[in-house]
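ugh ok fine here u go
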Amino acid sequence: MELGAAEPFDEDRLSALPDDVLVHILLLLDNAAAAGRTSVLSRRWRGLWALLPELRFPVDSDPHLVASALAAHEAALRCLHVGTLDAAPEPVEAWLAVAADRLSGRLVFQNRVPGANAGGDGEEGAGERGAFQLPCFANATAVSLDLGFLGLAVPTAGVFGRLIELSLSCVRFQGPCELGDAVSSLRCPGLQKLRVSEASGLANLAIHSGSLLEMFLDRLDGLQQLTVVAPALKKFSLLNCFVDSRPVANISTNQLIWLQWLDVYDPTTVKLGNLAQLQQLVGTIHVYRLHHPLFSNGFLQLLDQFQVIQKLKLMLFYPKDIGISQYVMEDLTKLPRLTILTIFLQRNGHTFAAALFHVLRMCRDLRKLTLLLHNSDLEASYMCPSGCVCDQPTDWKTEELTLNCLQKVAIDMEEADHQVAFVKRLFTWAVVLKKIKIAFHLSISESKVLRPQCHGRAQEDQGRGGRRLPRRPPLEILSRLPAKPLFRFKCVSKGWCHLIADRLGRRKFPQTLDGFFVGGGGGVNDWRFINLSGKSVPLVDASFSFLTKLPGIKQINLLSAHNGLLLFEHLIDCRYEYIVCSPATEQWMPVPGPGVPPHPRKLMEFDCEDGLTSEVNSFLIFDPAVSSHFHLLQFWHSGGNISLLLNVHIFSSETGVWRESTKEWTKWGGLMEFDEVRS
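structure:
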């Protein structure tokens, strides 16, 4: 064979593919800059990026380059994601004007300003950054703008004819046109979802819309009067908009099914229209009243309007320093008839049993109860000062209560004696309890709560021979078997299969801890394996060389672990992808990202003043007792603003695809939860 002779595989067969196939390949890069660089490959590839229907620019993009790229782009855009760092208003206005002519789908723009959302000083100095005019997006279906407190003037003319969703965050509104005029039916005839958060310049907000279904208003500084006329509105949320002024609001709607009112309420100045269809209500009750309008219990007067409601969510708020504040739970004299109650406790280290007991004795028809602790309570160690009165009154310790309908309970638990004592009392009150879910915090033992109360309530199991055995003896027998013979007993009957698969029962089965991983989530290679087996031979490859040796994988970051599987992320061509692997078997599966721009990974932390600082949170869910398949959950929200949930994506290893699930999730007090109410 002569040197330099061409081999058959030297032929460029990839470039011979049709344009639509090559465009699909470029879409998988998930990065507009990377797609543009393919123009250097050959003349065939030159200009292919300009045919992409979706463009995603990294979070630190130069707005001038974004404008140039959009000007050279030829195809209609169904999706445009742009991220910038402290951009000036002039170049932002320039590329938005170009995008307005091309966009026929979704626009997501985030202008991150270092420190803008930290410490509550986001608007200080914002005036120096200037303002710009928003163009009219005639064909866009969804627009999400997080402007980093740039000034914004909404267009005085033009119709957003196809706009369905609009989200505006960290904005200083400027005239001459009012936001209410721009989003009303004449200008936005198809608008269904509106979200405005962390904004100023909206002293009088008036919206008239015949299409609006969902509306979320969060921290509108300086709001004095709110008027909403939306006959089709189904969801409405108001959060900290009237903090420094008397609330004046008129919400005219007949179809509302979900109402979140986390703000000052005065029935003489707030009119909420016809609430006969309401299914879910969310509000705050201050256990101790301070001498400030914000801390009045006006929400109780809103509760008085309802005789029956399906689902009620209450935040019970305790100030850190009770001082001479007055205990005002006696102001709550009745609750609507309800079946589902969620109580979110922001107790700041205080005992909550007295207030919670006062609420529960008005819930005779309750079927499901959820108690959640605020993240600040789980992470901080506030202690009641000596002589604190938060445990008063103490009637919950002696008075009997019968919750005849309560069947399901879910509780966040800390290792605190008063919490354990209250949960034990709760178990005696719930006489028909069927399902208990407790999230134990730190080192608290489930036996401290469950075993004394659950003895005698164990479910019975029907065997093949027709004899009925209590649940406990089979568990004691099975707990003495090695792991492999134990799981062979799952084929005896459905009852035995359920018994072995039961999560509480599995705690009794033999489990020898040979080692565990420490760290993860803090950066690349931020973990180590602790070997407890006593064997000199490593049980697992803690460096995960079987992953890092793979083509294209240089660095991996441990994100999550669940029931023996680990979730890693790695960076390829400016985009994040995932790997799920078993360290014991070294089996692994690659998972592509769902199509979200690169992002820093941080843990979910909620601070009352600062807000949520993370941008993307990814979780691995795997239970081999339920299924051999795993799921990944990815929450993406605008930096520092939990109220601006942009996307929720779920990946299933069974189907091998991501699906968007944003509309099925809602935000409440720093927690993400699956919304059971469908609009």
